[in-house]
Amino acid sequence: LYLTATASKMSILGLKKKQPKTFKVKVITMDAEMEFSCEVKWKGKDLFDLVCRTVGLRETWFFGLRYTVKDTYAWLKPEKRVLDQEVPKDSPITFHFLAKFFPEKVEEELVQEITQHLFFLQVKKQILDEEIFCSPEASVLLASYAVQAKYGDYDPNFHKPGFLAQDELLPKRVLMQYQMTADMWEEKITAWYAEHRGIARDEAEMEYLKIAQDLEMYGVSYFAITQNKRDTDLLLGVDAQGLHIYSPNSKLNPNKSFPWSDIRNISYSEKEFTIKPLDKKKDVFKFYSSQLRVNKLILQLCIGNHDLFMRRRKVDSIEVQQMKAQAKEEKARKKMERQILAREKQMREEAERAKEEMERRLFQLQDEARLANEALLRSEETADLLAEKAQIAEEEAKLLAHKAAEAEQERQRLEVTAMKTKEEKRLMEQKMREAEQLAVKLVEQSERRLKEADHLKQDLTEAKDAERRAKQKLLEITKTTYPVRDYESASTRLDFKDSDMKRLSMEIERERLEYMEKSKHLQDQLKELKSEIESLKLEEQQQQAGLYGLHSEARGYVQEPRNSAYMSQMAFFEEV
């Protein structure tokens, strides 16, 4: 931020005067840079007041304009002209607008919000630059308040991991002390940061300062000194409480302290500095500094801190009372505004949550409606399909009923046919038994005839043998005794034997012919019976196949009856 202010004064009567010579000044605050054109006759107070008006600061007694002189620093004196002091000869001349004196209790003494903010920025920088020692635990807590002051309330949806990567929040000494990554430090800071929800920026900065004011090095200005007698190197600390003497290696715990209430007088002569206690019985403390300029700076800080120390213990001036009253009203107004804003924010969040819930519910209802429509369509399709299936089932039922009726008729017909078949079977069985008996008789008769034929053949053979022997004897007798007569009688007997043999042969031939005719007739009957049996079997198989098909369509299956005796008889006749 670069601001330009022209401090030239114009004539009241409008008369033009010659413009005075000016010089440029650059003032650097903790959060801005400003440039001014100053008149050469301006005193330090003129420039300081201009800066305070520009930033809107009324608690001016804590601040000053600091500049660098060689190897040290100095504060711009308000009663002397700017150019008459040992300021740098650069153009523009650079000054730092900083807190010169620190309050004892920040919550009670810092009235304006701008004052709190400037103190917060300066103390934060001193902690990060390790000008103020801070433990790791306190550093993390202070960092969480700094984040709250910068980013507001923690929102996990907005403050994603890594959002603190560009912020300098912890001293380098703390970062080097532990083997932790940046993400781990950020996680620790965020854990504290999340607990500060609802704290405004100025409240977070005040909490930061309240913690920082308890640190040992808070608000202390250190100077290197030597003691008179021993010529020992020491450190002098000046703060709002008083003067403190430290060892060179320890800035935390003072070896000796001189509260402002116990100091009667402070003076210096060139490099010698004298502290006179209020109690005259106590020894005067003397020390030496390296430069006269440092003694002047020490005396300046002592006077300013002592004045503030005494001022705090008096009744506030009218101006301070007005400032505090205005600040109190302003804080009350801001608190009210924050409460209203918090309520509005809460109501808005609730409304947004309700809206999101309604939208979610709407989407859910839309999904449910869509699913219901899809289910309705599927149910309608299913209903149509079921209606179609029901129609098909009804038609199939009708068809099956028709087929069942046909099957029932066929069953009745088959029962009638079966009854007829049973009667025919019975008659056939009777015929079979008769044929079997006839066959048995024929077989017995044939065997008997064969035996008789064998006996007859045997008798014939014996007769022929006897005839041959008789003929031979007859011939023998005829030749010897009665040749002619006996021959005639023998011829007569032979003729008788030949007629008997012929008759017997004819009877045998007739018997054989009759047997052959009966056998042929029996074979013809057997063939007819076999053909009838085959036709009956074929007809029965066709009937059974038709009955099985009808019953399988109507009922699923039909059990075929089996007659083992009948089948065995069929096999027997086939063999016959």
Automatic annotation (TrEMBL):
GO MF: actin binding
Gene3D superfamilies, sorted: 1.20.5.450, 1.20.80.10, 6.10.360.10, Phosphatidylinositol 3-kinase Catalytic Subunit, Chain A, domain 1 (3.10.20.90), Pleckstrin-homology domain (PH domain)/Phosphotyrosine-binding domain (PTB) (2.30.29.30)
Pfam families linked: ERM_C, ERM_helical, FERM_C, FERM_M, FERM_N
Every FERM domain range: 23-313
Record localization: Cell membrane
Coiled-coil zones: 324-473, 512-546
Topology with respect to the bilayer: Peripheral membrane protein
PROSITE patterns from the UniProt entry: FERM_2, FERM_3
Tree of life domain: Eukaryota
Gene Ontology cellular component annotations, sorted alphabetically: plasma membrane
Record keywords, A-Z: Cell membrane, Coiled coil, Membrane
Record's keyword annotation contains Plastid: no
Positions with a binding annotation for a 1,2-diacyl-sn-glycero-3-phospho-(1D-myo-inositol): K77, P78, E79, K80, K296
SUPFAM superfamilies with a match to the protein in the record: Moesin tail domain (SSF48678), PH domain-like (SSF50729), Second domain of FERM (SSF47031), Ubiquitin-like (SSF54236)
SMART domains per UniProt: B41, FERM_C
Protein name stated in the entry: Merlin-like
Species assigned in the record: Echeneis naucrates
Gene (UniProt): nf2b
